[in-house]
Amino acid sequence: MEWEWENKFSKNTLNRGYNYYLDGYVEDIYVTTKKIKAVVYGTHRYHVEIELNGDCVEDMSCDCPYAQDGHNCKHMAAVLFEWERRVSHPKIGHSEILNDASDDDIRAFLLHLFNENPELVERFKQFTSTDNSMDAMTNELLEIIRYYQYAHNYINIDNTVPFCEDYEKCVFKWFDLLEQKEEYFNAIRFLAEAYSILDSLDIDEDEQQPYALSYYINEAFTYVLPYIDISERKEVFDLLRQQFYSMKNYAFKIDLVETLLSRFIGDEYVESQLDFVEEQYDYFGKYPSIFDREFMINSVVNDYLELLEKNNASKREIKAVYKKYWKYDSVRMSCVKECMLNKEYDQALKYLDKCIKLDYKDQSLYKRDIGMKKDIYQKQGNKEGYKEMMKVIVLDFRDASIEEYIELKNLYTSEEWIKERDSIIKQINSDCLLCDIYAHENLHKQLLDSIIKSNNKSLLKQYTHLLKDEYPEQLLHMYRVAVETEAEHARNRSYYRQLVGDLRTMKRIDGGDKIVDEIIKKWKNQYKNRTAMMDELSRI
Predict the structure, then answer these.
(1) Rounded Cα–Cα distance for residues 38 and 41 (Å)
(2) How far apart are CA 505 and CA 507, in angstroms?
(3) DSSP state of 71
(4) What is the pLDDT averaged over residues 29-49?
(5) How many domains does the chain have?
(6) What is the Cα–Cα distance from 506 to 514, expressed in whole angstroms?
(7) Domain ends where: 38, 70, 90?
(8) What pLDDT sits at residue 125?
(9) Could you give the CA distance from residue 219 to residue 171 in angstroms, rounded to a whole number?
(10) Which of 299, 302, 331, 419 is the most buried (most CB within 10 A)?
(11) pTM to 2 decimals?
């Protein structure tokens, strides 16, 4: 789950804050419904105050130099990560109540709870059991598999949902127990084992439950990490890395990649993360499915480039990565955006020209590339380049809008536009946009001709209000042809209501009353056995 406050920080600041949170730098935290106060230890002691409105962050302050310059800092992020953990998993600090109670009172109260809540009995037995070994926990998972499997390790489509539900319950039953007992490292080991067992299964994939289960397990890894000793955290990273190598389900692999690259933050991990990602690039590059290969590489490439920057890689090394993986869209975009961030606009334009050559057949990517060129020209004050890109947007894309047409128009003087307009209109290949343009330019005769040529009733209805006073006869003729054609095929009340709606529109056009009366008289004779139709016509 992504919280609203995370959008207030850059990715780098968020990562640094998360690292401070993991390392336990947040202390002396005080939380109310409206405010958070905390001290964050780093180079110095910094005081953070955060104002809340429910779960939304209203305002933040910190006495560090970075925040004094008006930025949201890593200390604020660290405090919010700690607050988020407390909100999501509040600790119940009532041990003093138990200290004041006698053993007999505790036993009597437990018996009362068991009688009222039988499900607690099993939880209590589990909590007090001396056998929470890895074998005992995994055996319970294997029992669930044996119950649902159609053949060895195969879960068919009929069993996918109930199996995943029961498997999830079992996993998190044991995970919650280990968490309660503060056996955090064992919790990680158990999750890894449960993940491995899940990965070994052949599950029908018509449902999304297996992938949801993979996501939940990875979220559990993320949740328990702050409680792992710093000295053990590298061991956890290596454990999950090995887990990745042994897995066969590529969707699961992607989830684990995200955990390895985004949740282990710190200089001590960068080199290992770089090695890991480089290995995966080489492996994914050989993967036989083009779609999967591109998806997988795209999913980790930006993380890879970020890691290179964190490791102070040279520009030459980073450019080599861009060159090697240029055919992947995320790589191209990362390269372009890096140039734009550094205000290297001419270089960004060169890269975008290369992108266009690859993206030309994909309308969405092609339009994105053209739009980025347009934005760069605008930043440079290059009016001719900006104008050229706007022309491409208006003329080359069937989803071009009237707003984009107006944006192009505003780049010309009134005198220039009169000369340019007709040429542009002749090149428009979208009936909808063409009609929008004629309406905008008050070219009503051309608008009428375009609607007649398109034979599109939606366009007719859209512009009736503009044309009905000038061209009532033409509009009524088009409506009459349309409704009489549709009436032949209409067979339910919904269609009849639409026809009645069109007849009401016709009556609002000069001369429409007479024509509508003629149509109704004709239909009452022609379709007299359609009772629902007759009923709707009676409402006019």
Answers:
(1) 10
(2) 5
(3) P
(4) 84
(5) 2
(6) 10
(7) 90
(8) 62
(9) 13
(10) 331
(11) 0.56
